[in-house]
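ligand=fe (ii) ion
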Amino acid sequence: MKQNIYDLIEKDKEFQDIIKPLIANETVQKMKNFRQHYETTCFDHCYTVSYYCYLICKKYNLDYKSAARAGMLHDLFLYDWRKRQEGRKGLHAFTHGKTACDNASALFSLNEKEKDMIINHMWPVTTKFPKSFEGFILTFVDKYCAMSETFEILQSRLFMKKAFRYAYLFLSLIIIKF
Ligand SMILES: [Fe+2]
Ligand SMILES: [Fe+2]
């Protein structure tokens, strides 16, 4: 299932043309070194979020280029958010939108909509509303992807648990029989 979506993304030429200058960047590539949700890297999370934002915004004649770009850069914070960082003030959930926007602005020329989308992507955890439809779409897509990345791994762990339980039962029955 996961591989299917990546295959789809790779084959979408228009999306690739929009996203290529961003993902070619060395700093953006560094997101591959940080885990976002369970086994999903920050890069893969942003890449998927970016693609869904692009698809939805394109379907509804919205600014899909800004949506794809902001989606790709919305979590460009480059630290392990599970660990306490020296000198980092405030909780990650409330501060990383601004951090990502500062980091992205230092690397690329972002328009005002893209900046606002990145800063306010944590709404409603943060109270400030995004100023655009594209921004709202990013907030929902981000949460959807976060949940599916989490449930995917929990589901596979549950499956493994069940598989081990049945294997244990099976082995016990064999041992009892002999
Ligand atoms: Fe985020
Ligand atoms: Fe995110």
